[in-house]
Amino acid sequence: MNQLLIVSEKIFTIFAFIHYVGSPLILILSGGVSEGDLQDDPIDMPIVKNIFLIIYIISFLLLLLRWKQVIPSISRGGWLWLLLGLAICSISWSFSPDLTQTRVVALTGSMLFSLYFASRYTLKEQLYIFGWVFGIGTISSLLFVILLPKFGIMGGIHAGAWRGIYTHKNGLGRTMLLSTIVFLLLALTAKKNRWVSWTLLGISFAMLLLSKSSSPLINLVVLMSIFFTLQIFRWNYLFLIPALIGLLLVGTIGYLSIATSASQIAGAFGKDLTFTGRTEFWPLILDKIWEKPWLGYGFGAFWQGLDGPSAYVWNASAFKAPNGHNGYLDLCLDLGLVGFAIYSIEFAGSVYRAIGHIRSVKTADAFLPMLLLCLVVLSNLTESSLVLQNNLLWTLQVSTFLSLCLPQLSERQPVFE
Is 39 or 147 the better-scoring residue by pLDDT? Predict the structure, then answer.
């Protein structure tokens, strides 16, 4: 009976992450609508929200069952809980208290799941769970493309781009980026059946290319460069310090070289130096940040189109953005410079611990936390997922922050023993 419950727990974890990555329910219930297709009314999908609610409740119950093992995670995540506390308090000064309250509840639920995941599984075990998550996502996306092309391949203005089980080609691109990283680390770590990981890595990379999503592809190139560069942190200090100095010099030269030909490089990827118009409205966001610099407008309360403080940005810009397309700017809008400072302290400490983890653990899976943290930085330069409810990157961040604070035992105590 105990073994059945443990297996059920792992199944819950895998499918919870699949829902965070992007539920195919949204694509199916939309009827396969693509960007640019005509839609009379947006589709309301309470079932998706209800599934998140179920995840919160099950996570809370599992945390209660293992409360003794959970306490160390809670006690070592002080800055995270301070950030959550600030988000809760922001209800009192929010431009839209009801909206902030709803989103704070979802943020808390997402963090409960991350707390459960970090306290239940070691970092190595987490990698294998990600293997199941992205393996299911990769194979399901491939089947959608082959068997249900109306759903798996986009129409509209992105006709021909693959999207798999996700609503947009960028969703497939972001997922296949993570999938490629996970299966590379599994292929280098696993002792048996490595061919499975190499095969899924190849499929993931091919689907990333077929999604025609340029930002994830650029991020993958950068992350692979970081992955090989991180190897030097395993060297003896006698060689590590000179290598870091040399790396800094090479990086500086590389940056200057790229800066002088930035327009040509951006054009090769179908981009421009305004990041598709983003840099033209970022100064407008800075104007609003300086109006309420310390505590912001309340968690999730700024971007409400013409009905909120975002009206200034919308009216002054041709870009009717649903968010700031920059996670750092949006965090300042939500929780001010105080929230940004709290988050930055937690992030910096996690980077330090992630480097220590690479030095102490000699297998390839040790690179997972640092690569995830680097992905967060890269993604939030042009997207907004730094501190966001029901978001995969935020869920992965919180679980990584907490996991790096815990001793990585070979196997943690099962839930029901």
Answer: 147
Q: Which has more confidence, 330 or 44?
A: 330
For residue 135, count CB atoms less than 10 angstroms from its CB and return exposed for 0-12, middle for 13-18, buried for 19 or more.
buried
* 86, two tokens: 């600030």
CA 14/CA 23 separation, integer angstroms: 12
Judge whether 166 and 175 are in contact, CB under 8 Å.
Answer: yes
152-197 residue pLDDT tens: 999 888 899 999 999 999 999 999 999 999 999 999 998 888 999 9
- Distances 330 to 273, 296, 322 between C-alpha atoms, Å: 21, 10, 11
- β-sheet bridge partners, residue 162: 153
Matching residue, tokens 């480097």 = 355
Kindly report the number of other CB atoms within 10 A of residue 391's CB atom: 18
Q: End-to-end distance of the chain based on CA atoms, in angstroms?
A: 11
Within 8 A by CB and 6+ apart from 61, the residues are none
Token readout for 340 is: 């940004």
What is the reported pLDDT for 258? 54
The candidate with the shortest Cα–Cα distance to 333, out of 308, 306, 300, is: 300
Helices and strands, number each (H, E), in the chain: 18, 0
DSSP characters for 150-190? HHHB--GGGTT-B-TTSSSHHHHHHHHHHHHHHHHHHHHH-
pTM metric for this prediction: 0.91
DSSP annotation of 90: G
The answer to whether the CB of 22 falls within 8 A of the CB of 175 is yes
**Contact at 8 Å (CB) between 310 and 300?**
no
